[in-house]
From TrEMBL, chains A, B:
It is found in: Cytoplasm. Gene3D superfamilies: Isopropylmalate Dehydrogenase. GO terms for molecular function: phosphate:acyl-[acyl carrier protein] acyltransferase activity. It comes from endosymbiont of Galathealinum brachiosum. The gene is plsX. This is Phosphate acyltransferase. It comes from the Bacteria.
Amino acid sequence: MPESPIIAIDAMGGDIGPEVTVAAAGRILKQRQDVKLILVGLEDKIKAELSRLNLQTSDRLMIHHASELVGMAEAPALALRKKKDSSMRVAINLVNEGKANAAVSAGNTGALMATAKFVYKTLPGIDRPAIMTTLPNTKGHTHMLDLGANVDSSAESLFQFAVMGSVTASAVDNVENPRVGLLNVGAESMKGNAQVKAAEPLLQNSDLNYIGFVEGDDIYNGSVDVVVCDGFVGNVSLKSAEGVAKMIGHFMKQEFKRNLLTKVIGLIAMPVLKSFKQRVDHRRYNGASLLGLKQIIIKSHGGADEYAFGNAINVAILEAEKSVPQCIESHLGDLLQNK
Amino acid sequence: MPESPIIAIDAMGGDIGPEVTVAAAGRILKQRQDVKLILVGLEDKIKAELSRLNLQTSDRLMIHHASELVGMAEAPALALRKKKDSSMRVAINLVNEGKANAAVSAGNTGALMATAKFVYKTLPGIDRPAIMTTLPNTKGHTHMLDLGANVDSSAESLFQFAVMGSVTASAVDNVENPRVGLLNVGAESMKGNAQVKAAEPLLQNSDLNYIGFVEGDDIYNGSVDVVVCDGFVGNVSLKSAEGVAKMIGHFMKQEFKRNLLTKVIGLIAMPVLKSFKQRVDHRRYNGASLLGLKQIIIKSHGGADEYAFGNAINVAILEAEKSVPQCIESHLGDLLQNK
C-alpha cells in the first residue's frame, strides 16, 4: 500500500475541463489529508482556475504541464498516435513512470482505453481489459463488468472478467469471497447464449465464490456482489437502468408540478424528496475502472460535475491504496501456474 | 377486423389461476360490451369462481372444459407432448379452429411458446417468432422485441423482428411509419457486435422507418417507437430496468418511513405519490405478444393480478381487432416477392 497515494488527474478532460477537475481536486484535498494530487494539463488554465478558487499549489497539489488536448470526439487511434503530450497521455505516463499511483480522466473513453492499454500494457493472463463500475443495490452496492470495453466476449474472457471483478471487489470492499454471478436470461442451466453456456463450467471449476446465473434485476437487489457479462450486454443493461431511472424522476417531477396544491405538497415533502434524491444520485457511483492493466486508470463520466468527478478521484485513491492491479496479477499468477 | 372479438383465456394458467383470470374476465366484460370471452379449464373450478364473483355464463362469457393443467415448472417439450387437453393447449386450439380470435395465458412461458408455435405454425418468411412488449416512455410508450424467445439471433432474424415490430406497432397504435431503432452500445456505425453490424445494412435498405442505432436509455425517452434486439440482450435490458425501478421504489418507501415526521409528510403527499405510482405501474403494460405466428397468443406475467391480467386480455382484443398476424403476413409477402 503506498503511504500517501499520488493521483494524476487529467485536468483538461471531460465536457467542461478544469472548472470541474480543479475544483474537485480542491474538494478531495480538504477531505483527505493523506493524498497528493497532480493536475495535468495547460499550466495557464489550471493556474487561472486555482486562483479563481483561492487554491495554492503545494507538495500536495502539484501542476504538471501538458501542451495538448484530446477532443471528446477524436478518433482513439489518432489521439494515441499524434497527441503524445496530451493531458490524458501525460497523466497516464506519470503513473507508468512511478510518479503517481493512479490516473483519472473524464476524457474521450475510446482514447483513454487505447492510451492506457498501450502505455500500461495488459497483465499476463488477461486477453482483454474490461470496464467495471459500482452500482447501488437495495442493501449496498454491486460491481459489474464488462460495461463496454469488449463486445462478442469469449467464454475465456468472461472467466477473466470474473477473476478481475472478484479480486477487485474483495480488495476495495474488504470482503473475503465476494459472490460472483454470470448475467443470463434465467437461472436454469439450459438457458443462455453460447458464450454464457461455455463460461459456466469455467466458473464452476474455479476457486471463485461463483453463485451461478443471475438476471438483470439481481444487479439491484443485493443478491450478488460481482455481476459478469459481455460488454455489449453490460452497456445495454446499464443504459436501460439509467433510462428508466430518468423516466421515473421525470414522472415524479411532473406529478409534483401538476397544480398549485401538488406544488405545495412538493414543498412540504422537500426534505424527504431530497434525501431520497441523494440515495439514487448516480454521481455517487461515478468512476469506472479499466481492469486488466498493469496500472490504475479511472474513467469519469464526461459530463461529471465537481462532486461526481471527486468521487472518481476517490475510486482512484481506493484502488491505489489497495494496489488493485498487483492483487489481480498475483491471483492470475496462481491460476496460470495451476494450468 | 372481427365484428366482436372472441378471446380464449387459459383460466388455469399463472401462479394463482382462476381466482385471477376469471375475475379479470368479469372486469373486461364490464368495460367492453363488444367482446366475447371463453374461459378454458376445469369446469368445476371456473364455475365455483364465477359463483363466488356473482357472474353468470352467457353468450359473452363461455366456459370450455379442459381436463389438464400445465405446471409452471414443467418442461415445455413434455407439456407439448403429453398435455393435449391442458387449458393452455385447448385455448390455443380454439383459436386455431377459428372458434376464437386470440388466446391469453399466464402459464409456463416455455410451454406456451412451444405449444403456440406447434399449433399455430410460423408465418412464411419468419425463421423464429419473437416476444414483443410495450414499455412506458416519457412521452408515451415504446415497443420492444425480442425479449427472450431467441438468443444468438442472426442479422436476418433481427431484420425479421424489425418488420414484425414495425407492422404491429403501426396496427395497434394507428401510426403510419413507426420509428424503428436497433439496440446498440453507441450511435456510431463502427460500434456494436457482429450481429448488429450485419443487421444494419438490411434495415437501411428496407422500407421501414429505420432511424439507426439506439441505446438502452432511448427505450424510455420517447425517441424511438420500436426497439429491436436479440432476446438475450432484450431480456437483460428489461429485467435491469425492472430491478432499478424496484430499488428506487424501495428507497422512496424507506425515506418516507424513516421517522414520525417523514411518515406524516408521506400521508400529506399521498395523493401525489398515488398518481405517480399509477404512472409507473408495470401492471399497465402486462401482456406480451409472441409475434411471427399465424394466430395471436398473448403471454401474461405468471404473477399477474386481476388488473394486470385484464390488461393482457386487452392486448389480445386489440391485436384481434387489428388482425396483427394478417398484417405481418401481408407485409412479409411483399418483402418475399421483392427478393
